[in-house]
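Something for you to look into today, if you have time. Could you write out one complete protein record for me, on any chain you like? Leave the record below and I will have a look.
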Amino acid sequence: MTPLFQYSVKLVDSPFWTFAIHDGHQVDPAVEQFILLDETQRLREEDPYTASMAELPINQLFVATSRFQLDVNRKEEDSVYLRPEQAWGLNVWKDTLPSTILQKLYEEHKKFYQQLDNYIQHTIDKHGFFVALDIHSYNARRISEEQPIDKKVNPQINLGTYYNNEKWRYVIDGFIKSVQDQQLLGEAIDIRENVKFKGGYLAQHILQKFGDRGCVLSIEYRKDFMNEWTGLPYQPVILEYKQLLLHTLKDLQKIDIYGV
């Protein structure tokens, strides 16, 4: 039987990982009949195109299932949006989701994290440490498509680092310096730490278990690379965002990172 949660993993010989856990848009037919939201409404709160940006020559984990079915960036009891306050005020379900489906989704959440722990532990066993790039995006035009972006409170890149052990500060600083040494569309990049987001449950879980052996950089791109209301991608910007990550990864790989 096909599991209710779909993701793909590509393993290479590297201590580095890249995640795109909110890129997914798929909803299982067994669940779709109960969902009230249409595809456009769901797409607006998902992180489309982040997987294409995160296709880097390192270990990859990309989620295909929509966060509106199961959000693995939240703890198990909050991973299915049962109340509007869990989902930006949206009513996700037409009726009460059957308990059998809900329990299956919670079980998929457990299995995902068991497998993730195995991947991270294997990386530590082989390389002594890990560094994870956790790629996300966020909306900055909440009122309307024409709303001007308030750049004072919405950086181009919000870097979530809050839950990392201070011993990895030099890796975080190396990432920030590499980004600041580059440009996006010919302009300096506004990257700030923990302004909009500090890092979700995925980062918290990994760091709670393995934080002495590695760090997670939760990279939230402002959705300048698409129309966040219609979903229309701006392909040249997406490519620049990917190139930015590629260049920054090369700089990180030059740092003498250790896991002691």
Observations:
- The mean pLDDT is 95.
- The chain has one domain: 7-254.
